[in-house]
Design goal:
- Helices cover 50% and strands 14% of the residues.
- With 103 residues, it is α+β, with helices and mostly antiparallel strands.
- The chain has two domains: 61 residues, HIT-like (HIT family, subunit A); 42 residues.
- The two termini are 29 Å apart.
Length: 103
């Protein structure tokens, strides 16, 4: 069962609503895998332009635009200074503490 409550952003869903939404997404993605036979089904959550929770399931094939985009993204995702610093154990531990301390 899909959540019916309006929330602007997916991370504002309750745990039960999140589990329900992603369970339905998993069911649909598995059907897409059977019918369309992609390499994988990409899922992304969106809500910036239209502030309500919605997700997209996109069948993706090797070499298509999304595959190329994510392959390129993987080559640069640790290049920003803030992320590269996480390779240092003390920086990673500091970031983990900050995340744990948020209420």
């Amino acid at each position: 069962m899909l959540p019916k409550r309006y929330v602007p952003w997916w991370h504002e869903l309750t745990g039960a609503e999140t589990a329900s939404l992603f369970n339905v997404a998993r069911i649909v993605a598995n059907r897409m895998m059977q019918v369309f036979e992609p390499d994988f089904v990409m899922l992304y959550a969106r809500g910036r332009r239209i502030p309500h929770t919605h997700i997209f399931l996109v069948p993706t094939y090797s070499g298509d635009l999304l595959d190329k985009y994510f392959n390129t993204l993987e080559t640069i995702q640790e290049s920003p200074v803030e992320l590269a610093q996480l390779r240092v154990k003390s920086s990673m531990e500091k970031a983990a503490r900050r995340l744990r301390d948020v209420e």
